[in-house]
Amino acid sequence: MKEFTQTTEQEELIGKAIVNAAFKVHKALGPGLLEKVYEVCMAHELKKSGWQVKRQIDIPIAYDGLVFDEGLRLDILVEDLVIVELKAVDLVNPVWQAQVMSHLKLTNRKLGYLINFNVPLIKEGIKRIVM
Length: 131
Prior knowledge:
The chain has helices spanning 9-29, 35-48, 94-107; strands at residues 53-58, 61-63, 66-68, 73-78, 82-87, 111-116, 126-130. The chain is an alpha+beta fold. It has a single domain, classed as Trna Endonuclease, Chain: A, domain 1, CATH 3.40.1350. The strands form 2 sheets. Strands 1-4-5-6-7 form a 5-stranded mixed sheet, sandwiched between helices. A two-stranded antiparallel ribbon has the order 2-3. A hairpin with a 3-residue loop joins strand 4 (73-78) and strand 5. Helix 1 (9-29) packs across helix 2. The chain starts with 8 loop residues before the first helix and ends with a strand. 27% of the residues are buried.
């Protein structure tokens, strides 16, 4: 069993920046747009705040001596530390939280966010996930 390790101060600062960016984007655009629109705007807000942001990052999978890149992709990776998975849906599927947990495990990272922009209040759409 993996031992729980606390998030670092850097990861916490990034997490706050992600939540702030989500609030700004949701306030400006509201719900009802395509996921890609929120992704572009989130990346822009985070970059404006001085963070290094990568979008649509392939996650290599290692299985039984094979390594392949097909299949899994991160929406946003901030400072190579914190994963952000974005949605714009009416109903959140519980498997998406498991997806973020799998992404964290496969990339050996500790902190991730699942953010659904299709909500009246963005605070209801933000889920923080720590491994």
